[in-house]
Amino acid sequence: MLTVNKMLVVGIAGGTASGKTTIAKKIAELLGGNVARIEHDSYYRAHHELTYDERTQLNYDHPDSFETELLVQHLEALRRGESVEVPVYDYSIYDRTDQTITLAPPRALIVEGIMIFEHPELRKQFDLKVFVDCDADVRILRRALRDVQERGRSLESVVNQYLETVKPMHEAYVEPSKRHADIIVSTLVDCTPAIDVLSRYLNDYTKKS
């Protein structure tokens, strides 16, 4: 149910490298300034007290690794018409930076991340819940390419992290959260129709609201 300032909030969840960020970015591009986007990854907890080596050993695929309560507070503030300061996370140092990005209340907002349907209070914030589905073999290959090319990780570290935390946490938390989705989109086939439908849905809302 839409509240206070009638901001439409769409949650896009899915496993690591499933294609959820690509879909969210594509929709935001198609709708321009009418839609804003927040990544759950921005709300990874800060660990300035730990050394770099200690931070690399943390489990970043467990629900507790996110400061989800802050994201919920931010969504509630946006619905009240208040601007928020979204954290900036730096994957290369495994830590949140001291910078923030100011986000003014948009007409529609996309929130995306692996764990966004796992948290009950966060789940309540979504007017539409979309789960992006993709085979594990494809996801690990995509993740390896992304983390090596874009996040400065070694292939060995990507593989170790996947086997030690990503895969077991996906099976324990991410995959079960799929049952909360209103729509399931597969990225193993052409997902252009799904993107078009979601874009029209958001576009129609922003025009009439």
The biggest beta sheet is recorded as:
5 strands, parallel
In terms of structural class, how would the helical and strand content be classed?
A: alpha/beta
The value of Rg in angstroms is 17 Å
Oligomer: single chain
| Gap between N and C termini | 14 Å
What's the helix and strand layout?
Layout: E1 8-14, H1 20-31, E2 35-39, H2 52-56, H3 68-79, E3 84-90, E4 95-103, E5 108-113, H4 120-123, E6 128-133, H5 136-150, H6 155-174, E7 183-186, H7 192-208
Parallel strand pairs: 1-5, 1-6, 2-5, 6-7
Antiparallel strand pairs: 3-4
What does this structure look like?
- The structure is a single chain.
- This protein has 209 residues and is an alpha/beta fold.
- The chain is 41% helix and 21% strand.
- The chain contains 7 helices and 7 strands.
- The strands form 2 sheets. Strands 2-5-1-6-7 form a 5-stranded parallel β-sheet, with helices on one face. The chain has a two-stranded antiparallel sheet with strand order 3-4.
- A hairpin with a 4-residue loop joins strand 3 (84-90) and strand 4 (95-103).
- Helix 1 crosses helix 7 (192-208) and helix 5 crosses helix 6 (155-174).
- The protein starts with 7 loop residues before the first strand and ends with a helix.
- The mean pLDDT is 90.
Give short descriptive properties of this protein.
209 residues; alpha/beta; Rossmann fold; five-stranded parallel sheet; two-stranded antiparallel sheet; 7 helices; 7 strands
